[in-house]
Amino acid sequence: MNVRRVVPNFQSDAAEASREFYGLLGFEEVMNQGWIVTFAPPSAPAAQISVMTADKTGPVTPDVSVEVDDVDAAYAAVRESGAEIVHPLQDEEWGVRRFFARDPNGRVINVLGHL
User: Fold this and answer.
1) HSE on the CB side for 67, CA within 13 Å?
2) Contact present, 26 and 35 (Cβ < 8 Å)
3) pTM, two decimal places
4) Overall domain count for the chain
5) How far apart are CA 97 and CA 89, in angstroms?
6) Angle of CA points 93, 26, 8, to nearest 5°
């Protein structure tokens, strides 16, 4: 299994202020779903930061998103390890398959793959 990108997720209602702030650092808006906005610099599009009011379908806002090339294999490995599954594996209407798991530090990790 390969990791494609890792994105910190900040829970906030300040998307516009975040757009302005991260713009000062060379970031541009690359995705806006209304409840989540993602910023990335044009020179390094996989270096991303997301700001979300709350997760649309999950029970909590994840701390980090990790995109992998095989989300089903990741889900099987995490379940087999005994780690807590916070949100079950499912396909989302915005084109990802994902689940949430809690890491040993108590952080909620959104593990996803694009459909």
Assistant:
1) 14
2) no
3) 0.94
4) 1
5) 7
6) 45
Whole-Å CA distances, 110 to 17, 43, 52, 83? 24, 25, 13, 13
Helices (H) and strands (E) in the chain, counts: 2, 8
**Which CATH number fits the domain that encloses residue 73?**
3.10.180.10
Q: Is 8 helix (H, G, I), strand (E, B) or coil?
A: strand
Where helices occur in 1-115 by DSSP H, the ranges are 15-24, 71-81
| Domain, as residue range, for 77 | 3-114
Tokens describing residue 87 = 């949100």
Q: Token pair 């997301």 is at which residue?
A: 50
Find all residues with CB under 8 Å of 11, minimum gap 6, and list them: 51, 52, 53, 54, 61
What confidence tens digit (pLDDT) does each residue in 36-63 have? 999 999 999 999 999 999 999 999 999 9
